[in-house]
């Protein structure tokens, strides 16, 4: 038996659905997986690209691999946190377009944060997830 997540955008809050996320996600009882922040590091140790859009592609690949390891899909993501070192509209638009494509219509609760630095000086983007693991 699979229980679905409930997404809410109450009319008393800004309509987050227009931006591709939900204000509230209600999770039925069951296991949750907390996926560490994924950055533009490759398993083979390849170089980190300087462009944030290219970093986003690697981050999304890593997020996809984490979901595969959990036997989950994007519709099981409860919450995402996105950290960016150079938060401006162009970078945000680029990253969010890629995140939106990755989510494929799922609208988890989402928080975006501008930060001074990440784990290494060449990193510009980090994304972490909370995932409701399928039974």
UniProtKB/TrEMBL annotation:
<dbReference type="GO" id="GO:0005829">
    <property type="term" value="C:cytosol"/>
</dbReference>
<protein>
    <submittedName>
        <fullName>RidA family protein</fullName>
    </submittedName>
</protein>
<dbReference type="InterPro" id="IPR035959">
    <property type="entry name" value="RutC-like_sf"/>
</dbReference>
<comment type="similarity">
    <text>Belongs to the RutC family.</text>
</comment>
<dbReference type="Pfam" id="PF01042">
    <property type="entry name" value="Ribonuc_L-PSP"/>
</dbReference>
<dbReference type="InterPro" id="IPR006175">
    <property type="entry name" value="YjgF/YER057c/UK114"/>
</dbReference>
<dbReference type="GO" id="GO:0019239">
    <property type="term" value="F:deaminase activity"/>
</dbReference>
């Amino acid at each position: 038996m699979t229980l679905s997540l409930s997404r809410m955008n109450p009319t008393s809050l800004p309509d987050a659905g227009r931006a591709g996320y939900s204000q509230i996600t209600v999770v039925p009882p069951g296991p949750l997986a907390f996926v560490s922040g994924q950055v533009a590091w490759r398993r083979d140790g390849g170089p980190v690209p300087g462009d944030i859009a290219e970093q986003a592609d690697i981050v999304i690949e890593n997020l996809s691999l984490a979901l595969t390891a959990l036997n989950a899909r994007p519709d099981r993501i409860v919450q995402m946190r996105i950290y960016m070192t150079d938060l401006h509209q162009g970078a945000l638009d680029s990253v969010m377009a890629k995140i939106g494509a990755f989510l494929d219509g799922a609208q988890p609760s989402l928080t975006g944060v501008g930060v001074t630095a990440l784990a290494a000086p060449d990193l510009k983007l980090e994304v972490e997830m909370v995932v409701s693991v399928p039974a």
